[in-house]
Amino acid sequence: MAPRPLTSQEIDAALAELPGWEFEEDRLRRTYSFAGHFPAAAMVLHVAQIQEEMNHHADLLLGYDAVGVSVNTHSVGGRVTELDVRLARRIEEIAPSHGARP
Ligand SMILES: C[C@H](O)[C@H](O)[C@H]1CNC2=NC(N)=NC(=O)C2=N1
């Protein structure tokens, strides 16, 4: 079934369970900080693996010791859908294994 854009109430409810994530410019966003570059790069690769599995892809920005994640759903014209929330939850699950700072 095609995803539909979430209402602002649905986005608020999802964000309440996603600490550190915010809704900005029709996207879900979070920046993760790491102990250095390799753990940040490993996080990017792990997220890429999840994204391929889900066939849903965020924009990832790799810095020296940080990874920025920004996602919405292109197929509904760049709005936030349940697919974005599911991807954010999957990323949250793996972040601690890379030593992401809370
Ligand atoms: C053809 C393929 O299913 C689409 O291009 C997928 C791939 N990844 C995607 N990622 C995101 N963020 N939004 C999409 O609509 C999307 N669509």
From TrEMBL:
It is an enzyme of class 4 (lyase). Its EC number is 4.2.1.96. It comes from the Bacteria. Keywords: Lyase. Gene3D superfamilies: Transcriptional coactivator/pterin dehydratase. CDD domains: PCD_DCoH. One of its GO terms (molecular function) is 4-alpha-hydroxytetrahydrobiopterin dehydratase activity. PANTHER family: PTERIN-4-ALPHA-CARBINOLAMINE DEHYDRATASE. This is Putative pterin-4-alpha-carbinolamine dehydratase. It comes from Streptomyces radiopugnans.
